[in-house]
Design a protein that fits this description.
With about 550 residues, the protein is of the alpha/beta class. The protein has 13 helices and 25 strands. Strands 1, 2, 10, 11, 12, 13 and 25 form a 7-stranded mixed beta sheet that branches. Strands 7, 17, 18, 19, 20, 23 and 24 form a 7-stranded antiparallel beta sheet that branches.
Length: about 550
């Protein structure tokens, strides 16, 4: 029996998502006693995972009505409400997202280093990036790993262009460049993928056959955490192999109300009341891995945040941390839709998408365009769509506008207020116009005409006039839901930095945040893989430093 004053656990991890699952698994494997608290279900077998969430050909978990989706209310602009899909189930958002699994770019790591985080250089992170992946397209090398928990596969490039995959020049730290060869044959691409690839090449965009290979940005196959058509989330990869481990206790369908402190030391968590009443769990260390919305929300509820705002709500201040919830970044996004030709067979492959275009914008920055292979209605519901139109997702990857998360009440059950403030910066509006026009140019090309009858939700007059296009963007604005930086890491003298480089919350002891909340700026590619990197790398530090 554990004495009453002795913590029952070495570490309490709040959240079993993209970062929390690998972090908890690594700590347990390293000999720690871990309590993993997850607000949603935690199936003990793959068969217990909802079948619709395993299907990589849909994104049904992103439907706001899905029971395993937090569906946070937010405002992208003051007049544009939106529902923010976040996974409320083991695996977190890796269980409900598009299975997009792309590394941050070297430029992202450089930005994080410049923000006061020298330990997060590309060179320091590369061994962890290799170790977490089981890449089926490239053999083990200085760049790629083949034995990690997370599968990485790339759908096919267009016929005649697929041969370029696998011949990436890789420079090992101690040797000359080496050629790599695909481990498996490349299959024929979907007709939409093929047409988009040809259009991109015709417009002068580069081939980027390995999106995880630090090649110049261009068009190429999308690395995905997919195995045999299954969206391979972090619960499948990290938690299921430890289902019977005596060092791991999992409390599913359990919400955390706040962190418990003795002075400024975190000593446990208070669990949301249930039919059995309130409960607490005590641990030597508490780690928030609840995601970039709930982690800062829990900090605020627990008295860590801007002092004046907390005092107005009647929350006792543990640490005055003005950066909590402040200055997050994400990827503003719109959909350009087009009407498929009736004479082209568009039977989808096993994934919702196959390729992506990443490209530099005039004046700096980058945009991304991803052709979807099913109508959005079908992707979200699994059912037939009332319209055959398909979409290309167009996102600004380097937006300057910043958002904020704040509390409106001291009630632990009250949702936070989330304001993105998208396109508040004039430069973002100009770059979004450029991204839309460039993508529209591809979709109106002769090459893409092989599958398309033309654009269906935007016309030439709108595309040609800046003010009209700005209004169209405002009316059609969405988000890639890649929110990062809501409790960012930074140098000791940075007043906006909430945590240090190992996720330790400043002004407290025995408390960390380990998820994309701490990333200073959203990566130029989607952050699902970044979340896994954070969990594995900080777990290693917790075990060995």
């Amino acid at each position: 029996m554990t004495p009453p004053d002795e913590p029952e656990y070495d570490v309490i991890v709040v959240g079993a998502g993209g970062a929390g699952a690998p972090l908890a698994a690594a700590l347990v494997s390293g000999g720690k006693r871990v309590l993993l608290v997850e607000a949603g279900p935690v199936p003990e077998t793959a068969a217990g995972m909802p079948a619709d969430l395993l299907d990589a050909g849909t994104i049904r978990g992103a439907d706001p009505a899905h029971p395993d989706n937090w569906a946070f209310d937010a405002h992208l602009t003051p007049t544009r409400p939106y529902s923010i899909a976040r996974g409320r189930i083991a695996g977190g958002s890796t269980t409900i997202n598009g299975a997009y699994f792309v590394r941050p770019r070297r430029a992202d790591f450089d930005d994080w280093v410049a923000a006061g985080n020298p330990e997060w250089s590309y060179e320091a992170c590369l061994p962890f990036l290799r170790n977490l992946e089981a890449d089926v397209d490239f053999p083990a090398s200085a760049l790629h790993g083949t034995t990690g928990p997370m599968p990485v596969s790339r759908p096919a490039l267009a016929p005649g262009r697929a041969a370029s995959i696998g011949r990436t020049e890789v420079t090992p730290p101690d040797g000359p460049p080496q050629n790599t060869v695909p481990a498996t044959p490349v299959q024929t691409a979907h007709p939409v993928t093929a047409a988009f690839a040809t259009a991109a090449a015709g417009a002068g965009y580069a081939d980027e056959p390995d999106k995880n290979g630090e090649q110049p940005p261009g068009h190429g196959p999308l690395p995905m955490n997919v195995r045999d058509g299954v969206r391979w989330n972090t619960a499948l990869a990290y938690l299921l192999p430890l289902a019977d481990h005596p060092g791991l206790e999992v409390r599913a369908n359990t919400s955390v109300s706040r962190i418990l402190f003795e002075g400024t030391r975190a000593v446990g968590v208070e669990l949301a009341p249930t039919a059995e009443g309130e409960a607490v769990a005590r641990g030597r260390e508490v780690v928030l891995a609840a995601g970039s919305i709930m982690s800062p929300t829990l900090l605020l509820r627990s008295g860590i945040g801007p002092r004046l705002e907390l005092e107005v709500l009647g929350i006792a201040v543990v640490a005055d941390a003005p950066g909590v919830g402040v200055g997050f970044s994400d990827h503003p996004q719109v959909e350009l839709t087009w009407r498929p030709r009736a004479d082209v067979a568009l039977q989808p492959h096993e994934t919702a998408m196959e390729s992506t275009l990443n490209a530099a914008l005039d004046g700096g920055g980058e945009f991304e365009a991803i052709p979807l292979l099913r109508p959005m209605h079908t992707l979200l519901t699994g059912g037939p769509s009332p319209s055959p139109d398909l979409a290309v997702l167009v996102a600004l990857q380097t937006a300057q506008s910043r958002g904020r998360i704040r509390l409106t009440s001291n009630d632990p059950s009250a949702p936070p207020r989330i304001d993105y403030d998208y396109l508040a910066a004039a430069g973002d509006r100009a770059k979004m116009r450029q991204a839309v026009r460039r993508t529209a140019h591809l979709l109106q090309s002769r090459a893409f005409g092989a599958v398309s009858e033309g654009l269906s939700n935007i016309d030439a007059a709108t595309l040609s006039d800046d003010a009209t296009l700005d209004r169209w963007v405002q009316q059609n604005l969405g988000t890639a839901i890649h929110l990062c930086g809501s409790a960012r890491m930074g140098a000791p003298g940075d007043p906006g930095a909430v945590v240090d480089q190992q996720g330790r919350v400043r002004g407290t002891t025995a408390l960390r945040v380990v998820d994309t909340s701490i990333v200073p700026t959203v990566p130029r590619r989607g952050p699902a893989l970044t979340a896994v990197l954070l969990g594995t790398r900080i777990a290693d530090a917790m075990l060995h430093l």
